[in-house]
Amino acid sequence: MGNNVPPHAPLFHTKRAVTLLGGGAVARADLDLALAFAPDLVAADGGAGHAVAAGHLPLAVYGDMDSLSAEMRAAIPPERIHVLAEQDSTDFDKALRHIQAPIVIALGFSGDRVDHELAVYHGLAMRADVRCIVLGAHDLVVHAPPRLVLDLPAQTRLSLFPLGDVTGQSAGLVWPIDGLAFHPARKIGTSNMTRGGVVDLRFDAPGMLVILPRDHLAAVAQAMREASVWSRATGAAWV
Question: In CATH, what number is assigned to the domain containing residue 80?
């Protein structure tokens, strides 16, 4: 592998949901939970070591491989390892841009280094045409599609954090967002609450993160599967 690997790795294409495993701390129960929703396992660099230690062989591994030990690497079929040596992107982005799947549940990318976690959310915004859920120890985070319709119990904490200029409309929130001009340095929407039942969120542009307790993974996964996403090429919505 190494320098003999071509610069463009093959895509991982599947009609099933994908669990993308990163190198951060991952509880075995969390991995089992993610795989129950998303059975095709792909790893980003050192996440492959977590997979092997848990008794799973990832179907593909993407990254610069600076965090994957030789012992763990030897346990994985070499044709599944795709070395992307460039340092202009994170291992999360390297993996995410090579996955074509209905939905991705990313695990092992939050809760450790703050700079790494912020880079992951930057990656979500860059890959707005990917339906991805970042699953943490307490919360989950998605990059909002143009419209997100969720069925949630009353008094569910729902936070909105913009990464740019975003406006939107809402139904089903205690504090509606209609007419608010969100921006990370001026207006954020953390610690909102749901009224109970359908929550309908609409946004005029990419850049909004939606944060919910991880207990609602099933509802969020269903909603993300059904949602349109943003096209990187045009900024428009497509299915």
Answer: 3.40.50.10240
